[in-house]
Amino acid sequence: MSVRKLNSIILGILPVIMIYKVPFTKFGFSTLMVAYLAFFSILVLHKNDWKLRLEFSLSIFFLYLIFRNIGNGLHPLFLILSFIVILGSRHDSFNISITLHTIEIVSLFISAIVIIQSLFHYALGFNLQTLYGSFILEEYSGIIGYSVTGGIFRPSGLFLEPAHFAQYVIIALLQNIRKNNLSVIKLIFLSIAMLCSTSGIGILLLISAYAYLLFTKTKELNWKRRLQYSVIFAVVLLIVVFTASKVPFIQMILKRVFSQDESGYNAIAGRSVHWEHTVQNLSGLQLFFGVGPKDFRIKGFITGLNEIIYYYGYVGLGLMIVSILDSMIKRFKEKSWYGILCIVYLGLIITSDVVGFIMLTFWFSLFASQNFKENC
Predict the structure, then answer these.
(1) Which of 185, 222, 263, 340 has its CA 20 to 30 A from that of 36?
(2) Are 366 and 19 in contact (CB under 8 A)?
């Protein structure tokens, strides 16, 4: 196996290994891997005589993040490593086709685990635990064991929680949809696993994925035929939603997302609970530039949108959005379906914590790559 192929595989599993630590240490395994990938990327950039194809908006965004993190321990170094890996991806340090293939294989494997966990729970009444605190970073270990929330079993395989699982698997799902030789078996298998995870984000991503499926398979038709298929899709979707809402399992998922319990909590409230005492308390320059991440990190769940605005202000949010939109436009011009991933990531920022340096490295490396195949 070539080094480039190995590195492409490592890039593909970064979100999976993000919560795990190096044995007998408190150091994140994914952090070590990013440092390794950055070293390899430097070698590639040096081989190219440092003739960099910089994306201006992305460079400004990362420079701003690095500047705002000065004095915050090792975080400036982590962001520099992240930026180097992204630069490496832009200059073909990785074979992104292999990275996407890795994501597909890993998604199928973990989906099998999630489905098995569900079968064990509902058929045998046994909760199959796949995460163990001794292997998990201390900052995440407190969440281990909460596989049953609000009376709902929520399997997540090797991920910390179902939302993380869904955010990863959606890439494999969209990749499969994009192929000319779409695998219906893989499509159904991944979809079932996302439903089994009970992730509200997963359900929204599934609906979006099937809408994208409709678009890709009908784009060659005339507008009348596309309109007919769109209406059929909308009607079928409404029927499915109405029918599914009568199923006890689906009712529990919807209740968790929308209905408040005795404490006033639901999934939506859980994603907005910190907004009131973080972003709403900002004023003046803090509103524009944030408080800085020196008090890292807010206790409990926080979305990427909340985190970016609170720590980096609306300037940070604006730079991030511009860099993503810039990448999206360029990828679409290159006829790369990676532009779709930019749209997915923009949606995830609102609902999930996807702006940590590991997730920035992973997602922006996909956005930056020019090494793509239309049917990969």
Answers:
(1) 340
(2) no
Residue 156 lies in a domain: yes
Query: Residue 373 domain-assigned?
Result: no
Report yes or no on 348 lying in a domain. Answer: yes
The C-alpha atoms of residue 90 and residue 86 are separated, in whole angstroms, by 6
Give Cα 41 to chain centroid, integer Å.
23
Cβ-contact 107, 114 below 8 angstroms: no
SS3 28: strand
Q: How far apart are CA 78 and CA 69, in angstroms?
A: 10
**Residues 290, 312 contacting (CB under 8 angstroms):** yes
Total of domains in the chain: 1
Cα 290 to Cα 308: distance, rounded to the nearest angstrom: 8
Do the Cβ atoms of 97 and 371 come closer than 8 Å? yes
Q: Which residues contact 114 (CB under 8 A, 6 or more apart)?
A: 155, 156, 157, 165, 193, 196, 197
Joined tokens for residue 316: 């940070």
Asked whether residue 374 is assigned to any structural domain, the reply reads: no
The 10s digit of each residue's pLDDT in 225-280 is 677 777 777 777 777 666 656 656 566 666 655 555 555 555 555 555 566 666 66
Q: pLDDT-based confidence at 71, cuts 50/70/90?
A: confident
Q: What's the domain range around 68? A: 3-368
The Cα 243–Cα 225 span in angstroms is 27
